[in-house]
Design goal:
The protein is an alpha/beta fold. It contains twelve helices and twelve strands. The longest helix is centred in the N-terminal third of the chain and has 14 residues, at 13-26. The relative contact order is 0.16.
């Protein structure tokens, strides 16, 4: 079984849907049901008894464009675990690039970041190279950078807190740094943070990491560890945008690539092309009347 949900532009939706249904039938994937969700009126759901996810995704994007989309192999339900990347996913920036601007080397660092996120460079060596370029930068630049440069993506707080209100555990796992991730997690409502630590001595960055590297394998291990504590059948949502997010995206029931690099987008069974992260709530079938910006577990 395949269940596809997409946030449809209502202009000409019937014509495009008819064409997509014909394309599915021609590909040997007849559609059992297609219609708008009652409780999320701009979400189109298509159900198929069988089929291939990648082929269905290709057909839907061909006829509906680069829309917000999720294709699952069973009924879609609210996950019990949400694991997310931070940079360019929960926040709109790459922290190390913004921090490098205070050292006057943003262009050089940003180029390395972009290539690493596209999977063109090995992550750990690229990370250590960029951190090394920051040697001598005053530690105070981090707080200034946080205050002046780092902003959550629209809908990030509502996504995290709405999921928590539904009983979902939330974990922020990043190849970035605790100096940034801890306050971002507190602001958005994440319950756990996993990331790298910048070395600091004498009030300045040492150009080294303090402790082990948090990378793609760390993200995957975090997801698997958290899932093992929830018991069999717990659905898992993971979001990210870069190559080092691919293992956890592939391991999740709902692996969603947010405005992602091509390799991450192709690995995912969901994709968000719009800016608002609340699109994920719609794809999960959570009505807007149930969205919350704040959640008090007490």
């Amino acid at each position: 079984m395949l269940i596809a949900r997409l946030i449809a532009d209502m202009d000409g939706v019937e014509t495009r849907l008819d064409a997509a249904l014909r394309a599915c039938a021609d590909a040997g994937m007849p559609v059992a049901m297609a219609g708008m969700l009652d409780f999320c009126s701009d979400v189109l759901q298509i159900s198929l008894p069988n089929g291939e996810r990648a082929r269905l995704t290709g057909i839907l994007t061909e006829h509906f464009g680069e829309c917000d989309l999720l294709v699952a192999d069973r009924e879609i339900e609210v996950p019990r675990l949400f694991v997310s990347d931070m940079d360019s996913t929960m926040i709109g920036q790459e922290c190390i690039d913004e921090l490098a601007d205070f050292a006057g080397i943003k262009d050089k660092v940003a180029d390395i970041t972009e290539r690493a996120m596209r999977g063109e460079l090995e992550f750990e060596s690229a990370l250590k190279e960029r951190v090394g370029l920051l040697e001598g930068l005053e530690e105070g630049a981090i707080a200034t950078c946080l205050d002046q440069r780092i902003q959550p993506v629209p809908g990030a707080r509502a996504l995290v807190n709405t999921l928590r209100s539904k009983g979902c555990r939330t974990v922020l796992v990043t190849g970035g740094f605790h100096h940034f991730a801890d306050p971002v997690a507190e602001q958005l409502g994440f319950e756990r943070v996993v990331g790298n630590r910048l070395g600091v001595a004498g009030g300045a960055l040492t150009g080294l990491l303090a402790g082990p590297v948090s990378d793609a394998s760390t993200k995957l291990a975090t997801l698997e560890d958290e899932r093992s504590q929830l018991g069999e059948g717990a659905r898992v949502l993971a979001t990210g945008d870069g190559a080092n997010d691919i293992p956890m995206i592939e391991a999740a029931d709902y692996g969603i690539a947010y405005r992602a690099k091509p390799k991450a987008r192709e690995a995912a069974n969901g994709r968000i092309a719009s800016v608002e992260l609340t699109a994920i709530l719609k794809l999960l079938g959570i009505a807007e009347s149930e969205w919350v910006e704040d959640f008090d577990p007490a």
